[in-house]
């Protein structure tokens, strides 16, 4: 049986407490299921922003997409998770990643380990959090083999990027197959998420590809448009695309960016 659709939106700017409250209420009213805050220097601090959003809303869940696990000691992070979950009425979901921006590590005066060590630490943090806060769902997002093996062992939700995979004609199918094999008996209980990076915001049906190009600078426009994380067409056509993603890949949870929210709300309405 297909899993129910869920839709998340990333909140990247906070101008004031009143503006945050209004935005959170509007997103909740637009049909979004989860409000996410990222974890980058220069962006809002995740936990205070989520607590403020929780105070202004009643049903929308609150999450991080995603915390840089290497920024935190597990016990201190778990304390913040417990408090935020309590203050949100049990609506918290925690997204975790291994971190990738070396300049942010340097600005935080933290060492920047190699990828293998960062992923090893991510697993350490994930294990601690899931042991001490087992009721809070954990999302792990990424694309590489090492990270997806950790996600397959521990995560309730696995975030995929749809990025090209060498030698794979259908990169998303290959990554889902990899996760299925790594998760084994856990797979059917895991929710699969896709981070959408481009959505049309006007009647042209064509998305702005600038964000997607940051992650795939060598691809042509046509190649970018063919990526699963890039949606195009009318709201009903995009809804059909997401139904096909669920049928073909088992994806049921889609996350868009804050500037896509108004346009994507029409897609949500077409799917419900």
From TrEMBL:
Residue ranges annotated for the Luciferase-like domain, each copy included: 5-193
GO-annotated molecular function: alkanesulfonate monooxygenase activity
Keywords: Flavoprotein, FMN, Monooxygenase, Oxidoreductase
Highest taxon in the source lineage: Bacteria
Any Pfam family the entry gives: Bac_luciferase
InterPro entries named in the record: Lucif-like_OxRdtase_MSMEG_2516 (IPR019923), Luciferase-like_dom (IPR011251), Luciferase-like_sf (IPR036661), SsuD_RutA_monooxygenase (IPR050172)
Alphabetical list of Gene3D superfamilies matching this protein: Luciferase-like domain
Database matches in SUPFAM superfamilies: Bacterial luciferase-like (SSF51679)
GO biological process terms held by the UniProt record: alkanesulfonate catabolic process
Membrane recorded as keyword: no
PANTHER family attached to this UniProt entry: ALKANESULFONATE MONOOXYGENASE, ALKANESULFONATE MONOOXYGENASE-RELATED
Listed name of the protein: F420-dependent oxidoreductase
Organism in which the protein naturally occurs: Mycolicibacter kumamotonensis
Lineage: Bacteria, Bacillati, Actinomycetota, Actinomycetes, Mycobacteriales
